């Protein structure tokens, strides 16, 4: 069975890159445009792993991660954060919100897939 | 979808983000201090940077990065967004736009300008933000108190920041000779003791160990000593630790990177095997049993989040834990638990999913559609309108009763067709906002060049109009704005002397008025210097030296070809483009432009444009047996001339007296060469039209057939340009009718030959 990835990113460019990369690697991809939409589609999408951006309108990545962790069913789902630099402060905040790991942008397909494989069975 | 398509999307997105950026900065400039505005501005730059990074657009990335850093200072209240700061930022937004364009279309940017802005941005970021303030807060870097039963103080202290893993001397004596005897690669000992947080953050000890196993040959020992009796066990706590001996040539860094995501949430000790030799027997406190590690079992198991354990299943899970002998047992247990949990929650999840779907569809959504598709639809609807009209006509001709069910059905069809047409037109309608925003940049640039201080105020930027109109509006508007700032506004010292504020205001407004869009551009400058304009017109032989002109007529002289009042040709107006070109492009859109000016108070340019170029409300008239359509917007009134009101003037000219004023009579049939002799005005109908320059003319036609909306078909596209004719349309009876170019006909009546330029070139 294909693994399902939920990606949350407000940039159409990044969403498309994620989509292409993940589909090529054999994942099923569900996409949301911000944290609010991400939480809305969460139950429906029932993903195996989540990849989320930090800077987003309405609800940012930190809020989104906290929201996911509050959900009984998804409180232990792997969540990877997309960050632009290896910004220590941001990484820390994401971790404290409950992020599992991170991917530094601009990601290359190998980095992305490696990180996902590292956190999913 | 390939990378090129994604790149295309990226540039589209850039345009949106740049618009967002600019409007956000302008709001900040107007004193808006909403944090969300600052966030939106930051996000716009951040997004551009992110995408640009993916395509290795380095110039764009590095400029966006500096810009973003400065914006971040504003966001975190380290930098007050004063007018001066925003001035730099608005310029930076312009440069960012230039860099984006260059990245897309090639070419080059003004390197000096961007380098200068980078320096200014960096200075802003530095000036207000001491380096110390940028260091991460110490609190954020402090590891959480470990809730694992046996926290090792040494390891916890060894991770004060995200990179700060400090290897701790570790002794072992259980692992000795036999592994080392077989060394081909350096051997390492890894002690990995997860805390509960590791699991709550979605990491998995088993997955990390699996990852580790890919580095080289390894053996794993699981320590289950801390496992409490069942009744004291917290099913979500971490009780196991692993001791791994691994031989790898990938080095310590590779091993550490496996635990990159987990390093805060576990105790990790990594020792090169030889470094540990000779140390004393700490492992006696942690006696370990060799555990067979079955990797294939791991791979076969479905993903099993340990945290997902329902109350009921806790017991089962706990029993499983008690029975656990190997690492793979743990995986099995969790898998069972999650399967049970999934089954329990199935129904609830389905219901929730439905809810979510409804919520999602309720939110406002947009789709992006290729413009070609919309145009094709509009074209087809145009054909539908014509076809429907033809059908109606032939039914009326064949059905003398007039009141049949077919007729009623046709009326409904007509209604529906009209509605479909309106809806389709609405798809093409777009707010004028993007064009208005571009004007903000024009104003800034010209203000810089001229040394004037200018504020642009926009109103009604959400007014919608056909996309074609918007696209063609930018150029004339840009030129008018240049004029308004360059010629309209006075220099600061002059303004002060006149008792005005130093900062001049240029106002751009858009509104709908009776089925057209009206765009007004006003300035609070000196107004038109009528003396100067008049003198210039006399010098250029535009008017006679003794001509008696009203103020309005003088003002409108500036629309004449080649007219310029600037004493010297400046950078801006020296481009050979005059207001006559502006006027012609507005007319090409089926629009009109007027100016009104008050000395000392400024000028107002008013443009009135059709909302769409695809349809037109017209008056269908007969001229010498031909059917013509006159755009309704041009017609002021229609009248039946009285023989007494017609006066001859010169050899061929005739005037009509309307309410005590004389108005030249223009025989359309003569001008278009439909007939050789002038028609008798008393037998026809006069259409009073307003033509360029505000003057009125009475167009003579033979009869009025009626008013209707017609679909514009371009003559240029299908045939060739015909002087005096703007476009064509197809009437209900299937015949082609020509749409009259009123201004061209009026100009021709003044003795000017029919020009090719004056036409509704864009029609259809």
From TrEMBL, chain A:
Keyword Cytoplasm applies: no
Keywords attached to this entry: Phosphoprotein
InterPro entries registered for this protein in UniProt: Bact_response_regulator, CheY-like_superfamily, Sig_transdc_resp-reg_receiver
Short name of any one Pfam family annotated for the protein: Response_reg
Residue(s) carrying 4-aspartylphosphate: 53
GO biological process: phosphorelay signal transduction system
UniProt superkingdom: Bacteria
Annotated Response regulatory domain residues: 4-120
Protein name stated in the entry: Two-component system chemotaxis response regulator CheY
Species whose genome carries this gene: Rhizobium giardinii
From TrEMBL, chain B:
Superkingdom of origin: Bacteria
Modified positions (Phosphohistidine) in chain numbering: 46
InterPro entries (UniProt xref): Bact_Chemotaxis_CheA (IPR051315), CheA-like_dim (IPR004105), CheA-like_homodim_sf (IPR037006), CheW-like_dom_sf (IPR036061), CheW-lke_dom (IPR002545), HATPase_C_sf (IPR036890), HATPase_dom (IPR003594), His_kinase_dom (IPR005467)
Keyword Cell membrane: no
Matching PANTHER family: CHEMOTAXIS PROTEIN CHEA, SENSOR HISTIDINE KINASE CHEA
Protein name in UniProt: Chemotaxis protein CheA
The protein's enzyme class: transferase
Start and end residues of each HPt domain: 1-103
Residue intervals of the Histidine kinase domain: 362-613
Protein purpose: Involved in the transmission of sensory signals from the chemoreceptors to the flagellar motors. CheA is autophosphorylated; it can transfer its phosphate group to either CheB or CheY.
Keywords: ATP-binding, Chemotaxis, Kinase, Nucleotide-binding, Phosphoprotein, Transferase, Two-component regulatory system
All copies of domain CheW-like, residue ranges: 615-751
